[in-house]
Structure prediction request, 219 residues.
Amino acid sequence: MENITLLIPPSIEGSLKFGWEKLKQYFLPLLLVVLVIAVANAPVDSIRENTKDMTSGKLLIQIIGAAYWLLLLPVFEYSADLMFIQAIRSQKLDFKDLLAGFRNYLDVVLAHLLTTALIGIALVALIIPGIIVACRLAFVSFLVMDKGLDPIAAVETSWRMTKGHAWKIFGLAMTSILIFFIGLVFFIVGILPAIIWIKAAFASLYESVLMEEETAKLG
Prediction:
């Protein structure tokens, strides 16, 4: 197996290469993580498909779905991000960490709410500012889970860390969309590895930016 080293400065190509290496190294554990996230998202996807002909019963389901999306789903998604960071660092994966978000539950929920609100406000203003804010806040979930930062600190730190890297994040996001649709062509067989690769690539980019900062401090 080709040994790919995570290099700095951060790059789209380097993140994709390192993410691919980790996909091969941790395929089965990360596949299970992605499957858990897919199951966790299933209720939200189902509710979205039942928005026509709104009745009082469907309205109640919508409210319950919104509560689930806000109060429970972020726990699984943030926990998954932590496990992808662990894979990037070649650490042993413990599936108990799929519930790691409950250890700092309030920070996870508030960080998710704050990030969504900031991106939403920016999108309402104009599409381009919304994209910029989304790119600059791409590391919030990693920082909450990896560094234990509170929501405000995570947002501020992500904004600082991504300065000068927003185009890389945007480019990786665009490449991820292409990877995702290529995965769709192969249906289930391709979409799951595609998602693993995408999430591993973003975790790689986060780790690379973090390494760059730490190297600069030592220098």
Observations:
- Residues 17-214 form one domain.
